[in-house]
From TrEMBL, chain A:
The keyword Oxidoreductase applies. This is (2Fe-2S)-binding protein. It comes from the Bacteria. One of its GO terms (molecular function) is 2 iron, 2 sulfur cluster binding. It comes from Litoreibacter roseus. Pfam families: Fer2 (PF00111), Fer2_2 (PF01799).
From TrEMBL, chain B:
This is Aldehyde oxidase. One of its GO terms (molecular function) is oxidoreductase activity. Residues 205-283 form the Aldehyde oxidase/xanthine dehydrogenase a/b hammerhead domain. It comes from the Bacteria. Pfam families: MoCoBD_1 (PF02738), MoCoBD_2 (PF20256). It comes from Litoreibacter roseus.
Amino acid sequence: MTISLKINGEDRTLDVDPDTPLLWVLRDELRLTGTKFGCGIAQCGACTVLLNGQTRRSCVTPIGAIDGYDVETIEAVEGPEAEAVQAAWVDLNVPQCGYCQSGQVVAATALLREMPKPTDEDIDNAMAGNLCRCATYTRIRKAIRQASDTLEA
Amino acid sequence: MTQLTPTRRGFLTGAAGLVIATQLPLAARAQSAAATGSFTPNAFVRVGTDNTITVIIKHLEMGQGAYTGLASCVAEEMDADWSQVRAENAPADASLYTNAAFGLQGVGGSTGLASSYIQMRQAGAAARGMLVSAAARNWDVPESEITVEKGVVRHDASGNSASFGDLAEAATESAVPVEPPLKNEEEFTLIGQKVERLDSMAKSTGASDFTIDIYRDGMLTVAMRHSPKFGGKVASFNPEPALAIPGVERVEQISSGIAIYGQNTFAALKGREAVEIEWDDRGAETRSSEEMVRVWTEAARKPAAVAEESGDLDTALSEAATTLEAEYVFPFLAHAPLEPLDGVIELRDGEAEIWMGSQLQTVDHGVAAQTLGMDQGNIKLNTTLAGGSFGRRAQPGSEFMAQLAEVGKAAGNGAYKLLWTREDDIHGGYYRPLTVHRLRGGLDADGNIIAWDDTIANQSIIAGSPFEEALMQNGLDATAYEGSTRMPYAWPNHRVSWARMESPVSVLWWRSVGHTHTAYATETFLDELLEAGGKDPVAGRLELIKDAPRDRGVLERVADMAAWSGAGTGDKRYGVALHESFNSYVAMVAEVSNQGGMPHVSKIWCAVDCGYAVNPDVVIAQMEGGIGFGIGTAMFNEITLGEGGRVQQSNYDTYRMLRLNEMPEIEVSILNTGNEPTGVGEPGVPPVAPAIANAWRSLTGSTPRRQPFTVALS
């Protein structure tokens, strides 16, 4: 089956099994390896991407269900929110093993795009679905607040 | 797998002969590297003509900060500018990259920085010496008049200056200094300061390559089916339903199960579901974990092998004015690193190249050679970044490497990525051992502790592994009960005993190993004894550690930080715990309330003495992470075997991690005590659960005797 998508701003036509999760299309077909596999059942958030601007777990998203969508991955996430998030992530040394951080950065960027001044509760709600086995959570929280402050300034 | 053990052991004995302590590699290396234009003074440093300094990191970076820690030691002694420093994984090479604490290349036991601190500084100092010597020759001035600051080499009198890059080529002609002088602590500009982690940027932009991100031409992805019971074997299998799936290339039986090879991951995963397998459960563990708990508990109630004792415990117990007794149950635990176990192997006519987040490179390299029937020299093992480990990637028997090599061998020339699913990981064994503690304590009429008895029942991690000969003494595996012995508390009569249990369930060290359970059992039971004796948790401990200055230091510090004034009386209560592991001392105070019958942790204060904090921000990060890891585990995690011996959990839905909204506020204070730097990857885990439980006892009157709390309190 042929599926047409916009991936990171580029029009792509893919000939793949429509049941294939977007995650494996990104990784195996397109070599966009920043998006990670952690659980395969939408429990960890390591595979988080933006579909038409909304966070989505790519490990449970069949490619056949998103024909015509706009996909944004960690490799191309950009704009003032993404830059502020990534700068804060580096400044506060957020990552440890780093494996979940693509998903964390994508989720944090989506949060700030929607809500430039999130409360602590907003941050908790938006980020609770992204697991970090190293438990870098205190720094993730702090980095989102810092990125938010940068955007305001 | 067992058929490989004798020769594996032989291999390891051989490896021990290759130990090269902290000796700097030969000048010959500098010569051979000259051809590339860069300067490689030793096996740990490369200076490019582009002025970058690449530090070769011999330990697996799995989040603990090995890149930043080791590189900052090199950069400090070079007087480099931090912005010019990069990190690169060392190849597997036991002649150059041995961990001085182990005698082989590998990392664990929080030894990474501690064992490399002097060696890395020497490597940096030697590089600096050779660059300075090159400048002196170029400018025809005495070396003693040359200064180096932030990567710039200067001779003030002549007005000459050069970058390291400018001098890289000339420095290859310099003699290698034999014992380059090292700085004094007060001269440090990078060590002891916050620096940007070398891996922060790449990990924040998705650019870091983990093992899972390795793709080779024509590579097949391989999924596994393992026996659903520990110790089970394949009786027969039918590959046809799997082979009928488009993209499934082959199905092979290997010693650890059935391997399904797909053109891509999705095909391999579908094939994994489709293959039909009959299992042979003779020899499998068929007991449930509840049955095992009963057997372990019986054993802990009987006399067992004595690991440590003092005084006359039995008399003291019989004469005590008050005695207390408690039994604790700790479940099997999976490490569950977010990157599942994975590896890539490429076979090319008698040669092999492997990519893996290898934590014990020398052992893995040897097992790969043995499994493939190849000379180790024909196998290149590339260490890749690991998406977490927590001990899981350090297997003394290298079972995962053996599986990867068998996957390659069964299919012949080509490239193969072996990728476990999360379910494989959760079902896959190598757990923190199921453990039972039985404690008895006695007080005299004045409330002083005069008797302490701890019997621990669990499986041995070391027995049966290639480390058995080196690490087991008198039939005792200290990793089974470490933390119960060598306690800092001065009591006159005590005994620690170990009952070794047997099961086909595989067990492994898990972030802080024996301390995962000993800290909880001892620090909560001690708290109860102090209460029974009418003593405050902090003051009572301080009385018992008069001659343990480092324990005192962290306990006094954390009591100050939390403005300790007892457990409290309101909705928020406070609990304290103190525990040394891996020669680092950590004390914590937890602020806890009762939220619907479960502990809610709002704040943790933490004081740590790791001798000297080389990278204070990394130390703080490891304490924060260890605390989150410890809370999630104590609250939620257990691996259980149901009736018949099948694991009942399978993924993060049934084996759940702490989430961001559950993370407490954390305040960390570091004590620099002028001692040698010690590790911090593990020591942040042990004290947090007992601190929480002690606060919980203040709230409810009872200590959870079982982990996780969700089970104990339900």
